[in-house]
Amino acid sequence: QVQPVESGGGLVQPGKSLRLSCSVTTNNFADYTWGWYRQAPGKRRELVAEINKHGYRYYPTKAIGDRFDISRDTTKKTVNLQITNLKAEDTAIYYCTLVGSNNWGQGTQVTVAS
After folding, report:
1. Torsion angle (degrees, nearest 10) of CA 82, 87, 92, 95
2. 28 pLDDT more than 80
3. CA gap 1, 69 in Å, rounded
């Protein structure tokens, strides 16, 4: 069973950048599609970004794609999410997951406030 471990969250000011990281223990890391999701208070968990085994990136909206960048390191078995120009509406718990697995870590809290 794949168990992601997210890190890198924190309290940041609007307009700043943040890099989240997800460490995964699995033998077939490079063969899978990985995703970052987020869940804001009182809202449903939503997809932020995906990266597949070919390195192809998917973002659900252009607005997200303009500020979010998902990447992976197949040697370190990490999935990263770079967020730029942070906004208050980005405040949420961010989760990394093996897409389709329903395996979720504890998430990492991102709070954007001045």
Report:
1. -10
2. yes
3. 26
> How many C-beta atoms lie closer than 10 Å to residue 37's C-beta?
20
Instruction: Count CB neighbours of 81 within 10 A.
Output: 25
Instruction: Tell me the mean pLDDT in the region 70-88.
Output: 97
Q: Please write the tens of the pLDDT for every residue from 31-48.
A: 999 999 999 999 999 999
Residue 87, token pair as written in the block: 């906004």
- Count the neighbouring beta carbons within 10 Å of the beta carbon of residue 63: 9
Structure tokens at 33: 């599609």
- Contact at 8 Å (CB) between 108 and 93? yes
* Per-residue pLDDT at 95 exceeds 80: yes
